[in-house]
Design a protein that fits this description.
The structure holds 2 protein chains of 2 kinds.
Chain A: E1 4-7, E2 10-13, E3 19-25, E4 31-37, E5 44-51, E6 54-57, E7 64-66, E8 76-78, E9 87-94, E10 107-108, E11 112-116
Parallel strand pairs in A: 2-11
Antiparallel strand pairs in A: 1-3, 3-8, 4-5, 4-9, 5-6, 7-8, 9-10, 9-11
Chain B: E1 3-7, E2 10-14, E3 19-26, E4 32-38, E5 45-50, E6 56-59, E7 62-66, E8 70-75, E9 84-92, E10 96-99, E11 103-108
Parallel strand pairs in B: 2-11
Antiparallel strand pairs in B: 1-3, 3-8, 4-5, 4-9, 6-7, 7-8, 9-10, 9-11
The chains are: A mainly beta, B mainly beta.
């Protein structure tokens, strides 16, 4: 079955540590996204990528970094510069080409919950 | 400014008590409006895409409708397993997506 796999599901970080969240998709989608979800807030875009070796900052990119070395993979690193990293992180992907009616459906992974100790 | 507002924030229904969730949006050049279901601790699951005003889509007890300014997710005779958070999102030109904060639905047996 095609889908998006995020790992780990739960992650704990100590102050000053960098951690990396994995995101792998086998949907052959060109576009991939990282969102952060906090209680009472809508999903906020961290980074997105439309092609290998290229990515753009979203609304809350500070303290995060990404890479896109393969079409299937889009890992997110939460650096020590991110002051409030405790959150639920969602990876998503979509086709780059617009659907027949001009829209794309985002497919999400199961999420990774990061807690700072 | 492009934005999406969902109401109510939370909704408690008795089993079988029908109701509607609202998603109001402001976006230039709407490409599509999406409804997702999200269970606690899981990723959003796609439900519907609506593309133009007047469009309606149905799936089991759910029916989504779209006007030029808002969308409704109607839930008919809900069951406890319909309890979840329902997210609304819009796609603008440039592959930009905007999400609402969601409506948390609880259906009581």
């Amino acid at each position: 079955d095609g889908g998006i796999t995020q790992s780990p599901k739960y992650l704990f970080r100590k102050e000053g540590q960098n951690v990396t969240l994995s995101c792998e998709q086998n949907l052959n989608h060109d576009a991939m996204y990282w969102y952060r979800q906090d209680p009472g807030q809508g999903l906020r875009l961290i980074y997105y990528s439309q092609i290998v070796n290229d990515f753009q900052k979203g609304d809350i990119a500070e303290g995060y970094s990404v890479s896109r070395e393969k079409k299937e993979s889009f890992p997110l690193t939460v650096t020590s510069a991110q002051k409030n990293p405790t959150a639920f992180y969602l990876c998503a992907s979509s086709p780059l080409e617009l659907g027949h009616s001009g829209a794309n459906v985002l497919t999400f992974g199961a999420g990774s919950r990061l807690t700072v100790l | 400014e492009d934005q999406v507002t969902q109401s109510p924030e939370a909704l408690r229904l008795q089993e079988g008590e029908s109701s509607s969730l609202n998603c109001s949006y402001t976006v230039s050049g709407l490409r599509g409006l999406f409804w997702y279901r999200q269970d606690p601790g899981k990723g959003p699951e796609f439900l519907f895409t609506l593309y133009s005003a007047g469009e309606e889509k149905e799936k089991e007890r759910l029916k989504a409708t779209l006007t030029k300014k808002e969308s409704f997710l109607h839930i008919t005779a809900p069951k406890p397993e319909d309890s979840a958070t329902y997210l609304c999102a819009v796609q603008a030109p440039g592959n930009q997506f905007y999400f609402g904060t969601g409506t948390s639905l609880t259906v009581i047996p």
